[in-house]
Specification:
Blueprint: H1 15-35, H2 41-47, H3 50-73
Pfam family, one: YtxH
Keywords: Membrane, Transmembrane, Transmembrane helix
Protein name: YtxH domain-containing protein
């Protein structure tokens, strides 16, 4: 006997369950990736450093800005 207020959610999953599953799956995947990484911890941290990330981003912005500035100099075809 079940009341009318109770609903069975057997066929669907809630958003909360999906988010939780994604977080758990991501954590498991990241752990496995770190265990099988070909680099040492020091090398991995150096590769993932924030400074390096920012420097590469700044360099990309400079390249795009330079190419946009040079496009203005080109005649229309």
């Amino acid at each position: 006997m079940s009341s009318e207020n109770e609903k069975c959610s057997c066929s669907g999953t809630s958003v909360k369950e999906l988010v939780l599953g994604g977080i758990i799956g991501g954590a498991i995947g990241a752990s496995i990736a770190l265990l099988f990484a070909p680099k040492s911890g020091v090398e991995m941290r150096r590769d993932l450093s924030v400074k390096e990330f920012v420097d590469s981003g700044v360099e990309k912005v400079k390249q795009v800005a330079t190419s946009l500035l040079h496009k203005d100099d080109e005649p229309f075809s």
